[in-house]
Amino acid sequence: MARKYEMRRRAERVEETRQRITEAAMELHGTLGPARTTISAVAERAGVERLTVYRHFPDESALFQACTAHWLALNPVPDPRAWAVVEDVHERLALALGELYAWYRGTEEMMSRFFRDGPLVPALAGRLEEWRAYEQAVVEVLAAGWGVRGRRRRLLLAALAHAVAFGTWASLAGSGLADGEAVELMRGLVASAAGYS
Q1: Using only C-alpha atoms, what is the Rg of the chain?
Q2: Torsion angle of alpha carbons 73, 130, 18, 33, nearest 10°?
Q3: Three-state DSSP class for 153?
Q4: Which of 20, 128, 140, 174 is the most buried (most CB within 10 A)?
Q5: Burial of 149 (0-12, 13-18, 19+ CB in 10 A)
Q6: To which H or E segment does residue 112 belong?
Q7: How far apart are the first and last CA of the chain?
Q8: Cα–Cα dist 38/34, whole Å
Q9: Gap between the Cα atoms of 25 and 35, Å rounded
Q10: For 75-133, what is each residue's pLDDT tens digit?
Q11: What DSSP state is assigned to residue 136?
Q12: Burial class (CB in 10 A: 0-12, 13-18, 19+), 156
């Protein structure tokens, strides 16, 4: 019985250490950025030796994967499927952009460092691809039901891709616009692209 307790307690300590390392990496990625976060800094923040970090995460990619999963569990991205049920294209667009822009505002520090450092850190290539796939899924949901084809369809897709991008929100927020104002501006752009005046 005592041996089982010891084994369970040891497993708990291992998991606690792994969690501390993951949270330390996440904090540093959000403040310094992934490109400037070193294993030594993660170890120091977590209160462990560098070797301990490597025991839990054999390479940078494994650490980034754990960090991303933990961060997304704390900051789940808006689900495009929830918007798909809204039939009116203008209402759907306003709802989606409102939720997306609020999420951007709440995650601005991490997202700005993610996009800044993503191209510099090979271990983030997969995360960038996943984000692009998410943006594409959002665009597909928002593009349904406009009833446009050909050139108008291409313009609509381009306007939607622009409207949902973090960089667009960051630029508008940086210009002093509130999220509601940014939503209205992008709604106008998308409607114009689709030929609605």
Answers
A1: 21
A2: -100
A3: helix
A4: 20
A5: exposed
A6: helix 108-117
A7: 75
A8: 8
A9: 12
A10: 999 999 999 999 999 999 999 999 999 999 999 999 999 999 999 999 888 899 999 99
A11: H
A12: buried
pLDDT of 157-197, one tens digit each? Answer: 999 999 999 999 999 999 999 999 999 999 999 999 999 86
Q: Which two tokens stand for residue 35?
A: 């490109």
Residues 189 and 171: beta-carbon distance below 8 Å: no
Six-digit token pair at 118?
A: 């993503």
Closest CA to 28 of 59, 73, 58, 60: 60
CA 101/CA 170 separation, integer angstroms: 9
pTM: 0.88
Collapsing DSSP to helix, strand or coil, 159 comes out as helix
Name the residue type at position 109: E
34 and 114 Cβ atoms separated by less than 8 Å = yes
Question: Read out DSSP for 31-73?
Answer: HT-GGG--HHHHHHHHTS-HHHHHHH-SSHHHHHHHHHHHHHH
Give dist(CA 96, CA 187) in Å, integer: 11
Nearest-angstrom CA–CA distance, 40 and 53: 9
